[in-house]
Amino acid sequence: MNINKIHETVKEQFVNETTGHDWDHINRVVANSRLILQEYGDVSINHDIVIAAAYVHDLIDDKLFDNLAEAEKKTRTILKEADANLEEIDIIIEICHKQSYSANIENVQKLTKEGQIVQDADRLDAIGAIGILRTAYYGGAKGHKLYSEDIDQSPDLNDKASYRQSKNVIQHFYDKLLNIENLMNTEVAQKIARQRSTYMREFLAQLNEELTGNR
């Protein structure tokens, strides 16, 4: 599989993206994937599958593309032109469909080890300092408010529709970001997620102090 060709093709697709799911995000997910692979140490894992899936994981995302069937078709073409065989393409496409947070709200999807690594790598980029920036950036792109006075710190979100209903940036921390720490698959991602989650909780505490006029 020609990973360099996938790299260049996906870069062209995302160079002008402005919702936080941009080329820089993809590069960070790839870097996170490489870090987890290095620490994982399982020789049975197909590294090319992991890295290729990390590059294309947002090419089939209903937040970014309305026609998912067409998006999948284009992604398959990108992988085929990068010399991936049919079995590899099917595995990568399955990872793309199953790894997202929203895809796992109603039913937890069963992922291969490769898929678990990509999922962890993507979720790490949603939390910590970069997660704070991306959440505000995405909210701005979608016209969401920064915060409201009726934040629900323990929302009961059982389906994708209710999860997508949030219209302010701070609510998103409680809807999703603070939950990610407990959803990691690999030990290395769990360790990183704990540190990043602590940082987010400190940020929210500071924000609350400022909003209530105590600081």
List keywords for this structure.
single chain, 215 residues, mainly alpha, 10 helices, 0% strand
Fold and architecture overview:
The protein is 60% helix and 0% strand. It is built from 10 helices and no strands. Helix 1 packs parallel to helix 3, helix 2 packs antiparallel against helix 3 and helix 5 crosses helix 6. The longest helix has 25 residues. The chain is globular and about 60 Å long.
* Integer-rounded radius of gyration: 18 Å
| Number of helices in the DSSP assignment | 10
By secondary-structure content and strand pairing, the structural class works out as mainly alpha
The helix-strand sequence is HHHHHHHHHH
Helix share of residues? 55-70%
**Span between termini:** 54 Å
Strand content: under 5%
What characteristic shape results from the CA principal axes? globular
Q: Could you describe the largest sheet, including whether it forms a barrel?
A: none
Strand elements, count? 0
Short description:
The protein has 215 residues and is mainly alpha-helical.
Please specify the SSE layout and strand pairing.
Elements: H1 3-14, H2 23-40, H3 47-56, H4 68-81, H5 86-98, H6 113-124, H7 128-141, H8 160-163, H9 169-175, H10 187-211
Helix pairs in contact: 1-3, 2-3, 2-6, 3-5, 3-6, 4-5, 5-6, 7-10
